[in-house]
Amino acid sequence: MNDFYKKILDNNKKWVETSLASDPNYFQDLAKGQTPPLLWIGCSDSRVPANEIVGAKPGEVFVHRNIANMVVHSDMNMLSVLDYAVNVLKVKHVLVCGHYGCGGVKAAMGNDSIGIIDNWIRHIKDVYRLHSIYLDSIEDETERFNTFVEISVKEQVFNLAKTSIVQAAWKNGQELTLHGWAYGLNSGFVTDLEVNIRSNKDLDEVYQLKF
Protein backbone atom coordinates (compact mmCIF):
# COMPACT_ATOMS: atom_id res chain seq x y z
CA MET A 1 0.00 0.00 0.00
CA ASN A 2 1.54 3.32 -1.03
CA ASP A 3 2.05 6.13 1.46
CA PHE A 4 -0.58 8.46 0.02
CA TYR A 5 -3.33 5.85 0.05
CA LYS A 6 -2.47 4.81 3.62
CA LYS A 7 -2.45 8.46 4.66
CA ILE A 8 -5.99 9.15 3.44
CA LEU A 9 -7.28 6.03 5.22
CA ASP A 10 -5.57 7.17 8.41
CA ASN A 11 -6.97 10.67 7.95
CA ASN A 12 -10.47 9.21 7.77
CA LYS A 13 -10.01 7.42 11.08
CA LYS A 14 -8.69 10.60 12.72
CA TRP A 15 -11.63 12.60 11.34
CA VAL A 16 -14.13 10.08 12.74
CA GLU A 17 -12.41 10.14 16.13
CA THR A 18 -12.33 13.95 16.24
CA SER A 19 -15.97 14.24 15.17
CA LEU A 20 -17.14 11.73 17.79
CA ALA A 21 -15.07 13.41 20.48
CA SER A 22 -16.96 16.66 19.91
CA ASP A 23 -20.35 14.97 19.47
CA PRO A 24 -20.92 11.25 20.20
CA ASN A 25 -24.09 11.31 18.06
CA TYR A 26 -22.49 13.14 15.13
CA PHE A 27 -22.78 10.39 12.53
CA GLN A 28 -26.04 8.98 13.88
CA ASP A 29 -27.65 12.39 13.43
CA LEU A 30 -26.20 12.77 9.93
CA ALA A 31 -27.59 9.38 8.92
CA LYS A 32 -31.14 10.45 9.77
CA GLY A 33 -31.38 12.65 6.65
CA GLN A 34 -30.41 15.96 5.13
CA THR A 35 -32.16 19.31 4.89
CA PRO A 36 -29.57 21.59 3.27
CA PRO A 37 -30.77 25.11 2.44
CA LEU A 38 -28.26 25.47 -0.41
CA LEU A 39 -27.37 23.75 -3.67
CA TRP A 40 -23.82 24.62 -4.75
CA ILE A 41 -22.93 24.29 -8.43
CA GLY A 42 -19.18 24.67 -8.56
CA CYS A 43 -16.04 23.79 -10.45
CA SER A 44 -14.32 20.40 -10.14
CA ASP A 45 -11.07 22.20 -9.29
CA SER A 46 -9.64 20.64 -6.13
CA ARG A 47 -8.82 24.08 -4.73
CA VAL A 48 -12.47 25.14 -4.49
CA PRO A 49 -14.05 23.14 -1.61
CA ALA A 50 -17.70 24.15 -1.28
CA ASN A 51 -18.24 23.45 2.42
CA GLU A 52 -14.99 25.00 3.60
CA ILE A 53 -15.43 28.22 1.63
CA VAL A 54 -18.73 29.02 3.35
CA GLY A 55 -17.87 27.44 6.70
CA ALA A 56 -20.62 24.83 6.37
CA LYS A 57 -20.84 21.46 8.07
CA PRO A 58 -21.70 18.15 6.37
CA GLY A 59 -25.42 18.14 5.63
CA GLU A 60 -25.65 21.90 5.06
CA VAL A 61 -24.67 22.10 1.38
CA PHE A 62 -25.88 19.89 -1.48
CA VAL A 63 -23.13 19.92 -4.11
CA HIS A 64 -22.78 19.43 -7.85
CA ARG A 65 -19.42 20.04 -9.52
CA ASN A 66 -18.18 19.95 -13.08
CA ILE A 67 -15.41 21.56 -15.10
CA ALA A 68 -15.91 25.35 -15.05
CA ASN A 69 -19.22 25.16 -13.11
CA MET A 70 -21.38 24.96 -16.21
CA VAL A 71 -25.18 24.77 -16.37
CA VAL A 72 -25.82 22.92 -19.64
CA HIS A 73 -29.42 22.11 -20.52
CA SER A 74 -28.53 18.68 -21.90
CA ASP A 75 -26.51 17.67 -18.83
CA MET A 76 -28.73 15.08 -17.15
CA ASN A 77 -26.34 14.77 -14.21
CA MET A 78 -26.68 18.44 -13.34
CA LEU A 79 -30.42 18.46 -14.04
CA SER A 80 -30.96 15.41 -11.84
CA VAL A 81 -29.10 17.06 -8.97
CA LEU A 82 -31.04 20.28 -9.48
CA ASP A 83 -34.37 18.47 -9.61
CA TYR A 84 -33.66 16.55 -6.41
CA ALA A 85 -32.41 19.66 -4.63
CA VAL A 86 -35.39 21.81 -5.62
CA ASN A 87 -38.24 19.32 -5.55
CA VAL A 88 -37.21 16.88 -2.82
CA LEU A 89 -34.81 18.73 -0.53
CA LYS A 90 -36.63 22.03 -1.09
CA VAL A 91 -33.44 24.12 -1.03
CA LYS A 92 -34.06 27.84 -0.88
CA HIS A 93 -30.84 28.91 -2.60
CA VAL A 94 -28.92 27.70 -5.65
CA LEU A 95 -25.44 29.13 -6.01
CA VAL A 96 -23.21 28.97 -9.07
CA CYS A 97 -19.64 29.54 -7.92
CA GLY A 98 -16.84 30.02 -10.43
CA HIS A 99 -13.29 30.95 -9.58
CA TYR A 100 -10.59 33.23 -10.92
CA GLY A 101 -7.81 31.25 -12.57
CA CYS A 102 -10.23 28.57 -13.79
CA GLY A 103 -8.42 26.22 -16.19
CA GLY A 104 -11.59 25.40 -18.12
CA VAL A 105 -12.35 29.04 -18.77
CA LYS A 106 -8.72 29.71 -19.69
CA ALA A 107 -8.73 26.81 -22.15
CA ALA A 108 -11.88 28.19 -23.78
CA MET A 109 -10.01 31.41 -24.52
CA GLY A 110 -7.50 29.54 -26.72
CA ASN A 111 -7.52 27.05 -29.56
CA ASP A 112 -5.34 24.26 -28.20
CA SER A 113 -6.82 20.77 -28.17
CA ILE A 114 -6.76 19.13 -24.75
CA GLY A 115 -8.73 15.97 -25.43
CA ILE A 116 -12.31 14.92 -24.81
CA ILE A 117 -12.73 18.00 -22.62
CA ASP A 118 -12.75 20.03 -25.87
CA ASN A 119 -16.40 19.03 -26.28
CA TRP A 120 -17.30 20.40 -22.85
CA ILE A 121 -15.29 23.58 -23.34
CA ARG A 122 -17.34 24.21 -26.47
CA HIS A 123 -20.12 25.47 -24.19
CA ILE A 124 -17.73 27.97 -22.57
CA LYS A 125 -16.53 29.12 -25.97
CA ASP A 126 -20.15 29.89 -26.84
CA VAL A 127 -20.27 32.25 -23.85
CA TYR A 128 -17.14 34.02 -25.10
CA ARG A 129 -18.63 34.35 -28.59
CA LEU A 130 -21.76 35.91 -27.09
CA HIS A 131 -19.66 38.58 -25.36
CA SER A 132 -16.66 38.70 -27.70
CA ILE A 133 -16.92 42.37 -28.63
CA TYR A 134 -16.72 43.44 -24.99
CA LEU A 135 -14.12 40.88 -23.96
CA ASP A 136 -11.87 41.55 -26.94
CA SER A 137 -11.91 45.25 -26.04
CA ILE A 138 -10.11 44.46 -22.77
CA GLU A 139 -6.43 44.77 -23.59
CA ASP A 140 -4.97 43.41 -20.35
CA GLU A 141 -5.01 39.61 -20.60
CA THR A 142 -5.44 38.99 -16.87
CA GLU A 143 -8.30 41.45 -16.63
CA ARG A 144 -9.95 39.87 -19.69
CA PHE A 145 -9.55 36.40 -18.12
CA ASN A 146 -11.08 37.52 -14.80
CA THR A 147 -13.92 39.29 -16.56
CA PHE A 148 -14.66 36.21 -18.64
CA VAL A 149 -14.83 34.11 -15.45
CA GLU A 150 -17.43 36.52 -14.04
CA ILE A 151 -19.44 36.70 -17.26
CA SER A 152 -19.49 32.93 -17.55
CA VAL A 153 -20.85 32.58 -14.01
CA LYS A 154 -23.60 35.10 -14.75
CA GLU A 155 -24.57 33.24 -17.90
CA GLN A 156 -24.77 29.98 -15.97
CA VAL A 157 -27.12 31.60 -13.45
CA PHE A 158 -29.31 32.77 -16.34
CA ASN A 159 -29.21 29.26 -17.83
CA LEU A 160 -30.25 27.92 -14.44
CA ALA A 161 -33.20 30.31 -14.27
CA LYS A 162 -34.46 29.09 -17.64
CA THR A 163 -34.54 25.40 -16.71
CA SER A 164 -38.00 23.84 -16.48
CA ILE A 165 -37.17 22.85 -12.89
CA VAL A 166 -36.61 26.40 -11.67
CA GLN A 167 -39.42 27.77 -13.79
CA ALA A 168 -41.87 25.27 -12.29
CA ALA A 169 -40.73 26.07 -8.77
CA TRP A 170 -41.32 29.78 -9.27
CA LYS A 171 -44.67 29.13 -10.93
CA ASN A 172 -45.72 27.11 -7.88
CA GLY A 173 -44.70 29.90 -5.54
CA GLN A 174 -41.72 28.05 -4.12
CA GLU A 175 -39.12 30.20 -2.38
CA LEU A 176 -35.99 29.82 -4.49
CA THR A 177 -33.21 32.34 -5.12
CA LEU A 178 -30.34 31.94 -7.58
CA HIS A 179 -26.92 33.49 -6.97
CA GLY A 180 -23.57 33.88 -8.75
CA TRP A 181 -20.17 34.10 -7.08
CA ALA A 182 -16.53 34.20 -8.17
CA TYR A 183 -14.00 32.77 -5.72
CA GLY A 184 -10.47 34.09 -5.38
CA LEU A 185 -7.92 31.30 -5.12
CA ASN A 186 -5.26 33.70 -3.94
CA SER A 187 -7.38 35.38 -1.27
CA GLY A 188 -10.08 32.96 -0.14
CA PHE A 189 -12.74 35.63 -0.54
CA VAL A 190 -15.77 35.39 -2.81
CA THR A 191 -17.15 38.16 -4.97
CA ASP A 192 -20.93 38.37 -5.10
CA LEU A 193 -21.64 39.09 -8.77
CA GLU A 194 -25.04 40.54 -7.85
CA VAL A 195 -27.14 38.22 -9.95
CA ASN A 196 -29.56 37.32 -7.19
CA ILE A 197 -32.69 36.10 -8.96
CA ARG A 198 -35.91 34.88 -7.34
CA SER A 199 -38.42 35.31 -10.19
CA ASN A 200 -38.73 35.84 -13.93
CA LYS A 201 -39.16 39.54 -13.27
CA ASP A 202 -35.80 39.56 -11.49
CA LEU A 203 -34.30 37.58 -14.36
CA ASP A 204 -35.33 40.21 -16.92
CA GLU A 205 -34.21 43.12 -14.76
CA VAL A 206 -30.86 41.62 -13.76
CA TYR A 207 -30.01 40.56 -17.32
CA GLN A 208 -30.62 44.05 -18.64
CA LEU A 209 -28.56 45.51 -15.81
CA LYS A 210 -25.61 43.16 -16.12
CA PHE A 211 -25.21 43.12 -19.91
UniProtKB/TrEMBL annotation:
<dbReference type="InterPro" id="IPR036874">
    <property type="entry name" value="Carbonic_anhydrase_sf"/>
</dbReference>
<dbReference type="Pfam" id="PF00484">
    <property type="entry name" value="Pro_CA"/>
</dbReference>
<keyword id="KW-0862">Zinc</keyword>
<comment type="similarity">
    <text>Belongs to the beta-class carbonic anhydrase family.</text>
</comment>
<dbReference type="InterPro" id="IPR015892">
    <property type="entry name" value="Carbonic_anhydrase_CS"/>
</dbReference>
<keyword id="KW-0479">Metal-binding</keyword>
<protein>
    <recommendedName>
        <fullName>carbonic anhydrase</fullName>
        <ecNumber>4.2.1.1</ecNumber>
    </recommendedName>
</protein>
<dbReference type="InterPro" id="IPR001765">
    <property type="entry name" value="Carbonic_anhydrase"/>
</dbReference>
<keyword id="KW-0456">Lyase</keyword>
